[in-house]
Amino acid sequence: MIGVLSGAVWQGTGFAFIWVIMHTFPSLAGWGLAEIAFLYGLRLTAHALAMIPLMSVNDIHWLVLNGEFDRFLLRPLNPLVQLMGNRMGIAQFGDLLAGVTLLAVAGRSAHVQWNGWLVAFCAAAIVGGALIEAAFFLALCSLSLRLIDTFALRVFVDDVFSKFGSYPMKIFGGAAEWLFTFVLPVAFVAYVPASVVLGKLGDPLAVAAPLLGVPLIVLAYLVWRRQLDHYQSAGH
After folding, report:
1. Which of 35, 85, 152, 153 is the least buried, fewest Cβ under 10 Å from its Cβ?
2. Which of 116, 134, 119 minimizes the C-alpha distance to 46?
């Protein structure tokens, strides 16, 4: 319970910062507080779904350094499945609680006209956003099988998704907006789907945004398999 509550409180402080900003600037790139809260809730829910099953993978560098990863290779079950089953992200259930609550409250405040199609799209967007974030996290974690410690890089990428993914991309403009859309697809986690739900994006191709997570997670798994083939035990 403490873990779940700490996760919810931590994410609540992040949204409190946005709330303070919005009281100084009532609109950011045409987005009001309720709309940005919806965007924040969408990103947070996707983040929680990505990290709940993958939190144990975050420990991979310690397992490699201590030679404990070897035992996963002696069992018939997929090593990644074993690694994911080591422990579950408890605090991330607090993230999920905060994200779903924000989505419900902000969606109502932003006057989203929910229907069957929008509900299905929003659910697909959450899963797709989770797959995008999970893909980058898994790919970076898998590098620890050869580079030993990629923790700082993982923290940096997680911060990018968290900090930049919680705001409308338009406020960054220019090169930054292009970078977070086409190089590191932060925009496709929440900004593009939220824009569709809120009626701010008329591009028909935007409805395909949730599908991006599928090829990315497949590619991340291939990276994992490639690094696993080159793994050398700490005892070698």
Report:
1. 152
2. 134
